[in-house]
Amino acid sequence: MPTVLAIETSCDETAVAIVNNRQVYSSIIASQIPVHQQYGGVVPEVASRQHLETLNQEIAQAMEQSHRDWGQIDGIAATCAPGLVGALLVGLTAAKTLAMVHKKPFLGVHHLEGHIYATYLSESTLDPPFLSLLVSGGHTSLIYVKDCGSYETLGETRDDAAGEAFDKVARLLKLGYPGGPVIDKLAQTGDPQAFALPEGKISLPGGGYHPYDGSFSGLKTAVLRLVQQLEKEGREVPLADVAASFQETIARSLTKRALACARDYGLSTIAVGGGVAANSGLRKYLQAAAAEHNIRVLFPPLKYCTDNAAMIGCAASDHLSRGHTSALTLGVHSRLPLSQVMNLYEH
Ligand code: KG4
Ligand code: ZN
Q1: Cα 2 to ligand 2 centroid, rounded to whole Å
Q2: How confident is the model at residue 38, as a pLDDT?
Q3: In a domain, 106, yes or no
Q4: Which of 117, 231, 256, 331 has the largest CB neighbor count within 10 A?
């Protein structure tokens, strides 16, 4: 299998990795979280500038730690969609330049395909077909993984992504940014049954609910109303209980839909990916429920749940082994459906 140098700059992590198939030779991640924390969220222009400042030294570090030289690199890859356009451009331009200078094939990689591949990094036995539950700051989707580059989205959120809901609820509870890890920690000391919150079901015109689609904006509003009500009554907001109830509601809602989808499509494995895959409540809830239905649930190692370049390299290595390469004229896309992944390659 080919060895790939991969760059990930789609949001607020500047990352470079050297990967051969499922083996990571080096993985460098510089988080910009402390820089964006003062603004309460990611500022796109600041993100691009940070990527520019740190990328070159990360490439050098990744090469050094991999104990490989340029002659041993078979291809150069970068995330090209979806994400912040300015941020993506930094990584993509660097990758194209390296490809030209070192005369290597260049590959643009879809960020969500990278999150799907993250599970391969710890599971040598995982192969398609399987169901991917992709839960990140920008996406919440149930994806039928058929093969490398072949994906069918079966369910998604109609509004906020799961990670976005964590971030928004943390903001309204004044817990800071990013919200997922703080709520996760706080929830461990709270009572998940303390407050009943809506799961975000989508009604169907003919009655009943959509089996795989959901919504998280109503849940966020319900938490806001709950906090306002408690404050109106002059009661102290029991932050740990609110966090635990909120987290359990998200875990229950994702679990129900993922299990229904896996069973309906006859898929015996669910691979979870994206930043929210790091959530301890979701891990426990989904594992327990899936075990009752004999469905195997796999999570990437924690360091490969949130954004990283190793997952991008893993996807790129697979594409390159099949002869897929991208044109140097390839641009970046702020949005791109997973079904269009193969449009990124000339093959
Ligand atoms: O995949 P990711 O790094 O970036 C995107 O592609 O969006 O996901 C970031 C999201 C953020 O919303 C963050 O709050 C959430 O993942 N997150 C978590 C946890 N760690 C990160 N959410 C819940 N529990 C966690 N432990
Ligand atoms: Zn991501």
Answers
A1: 24
A2: 87
A3: yes
A4: 117
